[in-house]
Design goal:
Layout (H helix, E strand, L loop, with lengths): L4 E4 L6 E2 L1 H14 L7 H7 L4 H9 L4 H15 L5 E2 L3 H10 L3 E9 H10 L8 E5 L1 H5 L7 H11 L6 E5 L2 H9 L3 E5 L6 H4 L6 E3 L2 H9 L12
Parallel strand pairs: 1-4, 1-6, 4-5, 6-7, 7-8
Antiparallel strand pairs: 2-3
């Protein structure tokens, strides 16, 4: 069955927001009198939700307070170092021209996710931005839960067998499986190609150009290659 809807993860897939996340995480650590975290460790801890990230970085006992502090710091620094992943606008545009529906599906706060997409000029290139609320994240209503995926499909009015999940982490692979969707992964975020292999995805791509060319037959723009 042809793909009619593509759900994209946000951080590490469509956008690079890792600098802002690292800044907010370390301000949180400082406020809790905990050691600061190297950037690469923060990047590797992203995925699943800010609740899980803070459990990894601040420890389970500090995570509830850390999540609350992080929200305030991220609100001040969300645009620090923010950029679109190479090929994001190109792929979204080509999918739109082909009549394929596009949505963001993220464990990030929905309001901030919309702001990020608009800030980068990508907001008009997707039909919806589906994220979490603070209350929802704390009670676990997020990827990869099957009910979260079912709610996303319902919100878009689309069928799982006609949908594709694109992400950069094991959480995205599990989310797609739990939602009954096909999955393609890109090694552009917090996990490399080796870490993403064997997760049941149709393929692991080096970047969005490669995904667009391999999955949909879109030739990369002049001066760009799928290997960049």
């Amino acid at each position: 069955m042809p793909i009619r809807t593509v759900f994209f993860d946000l951080d590490g897939t469509l956008v690079d927001n890792f600098t802002a996340v690292a800044v907010a995480c370390n301000l949180t650590m400082r406020a809790l009198a905990l050691p600061e975290i190297p950037y690469e460790r923060v990047r590797g801890a992203v995925g699943g939700s800010i609740v899980l990230t803070m459990q990894r970085l601040a420890g389970p006992e500090n995570a509830p307070q850390a999540v609350k502090l992080y929200g305030g710091f991220f609100a001040e620094h969300w645009a620090d170092g923010l950029s679109a992943m190479e090929g994001a606008a190109w792929l979204l545009d080509n999918l739109g021209k082909a009549g394929i529906r596009r949505a963001v599906l993220t464990n990030k706060n929905e309001a901030f996710s919309r702001r990020i997409m608009e800030h980068l000029g990508l907001g008009a290139m997707v039909e919806d931005v589906i994220g979490t609320s603070e209350e929802g994240a704390l009670r676990g209503f997020r990827k990869p839960r099957a009910d979260f995926m079912a709610a996303a499909l319902s919100r878009m009015g689309t069928k799982a067998e006609e949908s594709l999940m694109v992400g950069d982490s094991p959480f995205d692979a599990e989310a797609g499986r739990n939602g009954g969707m096909a999955v393609r992964l890109v090694a552009t975020g917090s996990h490399g190609a080796e870490a993403l292999a064997g997760l049941g995805a149709l393929a692991v791509h080096r970047n969005l150009y490669e995904l667009g060319e391999s999955a949909f037959g879109y030739p990369p723009p002049e001066g760009r290659t799928a290997t960049r």
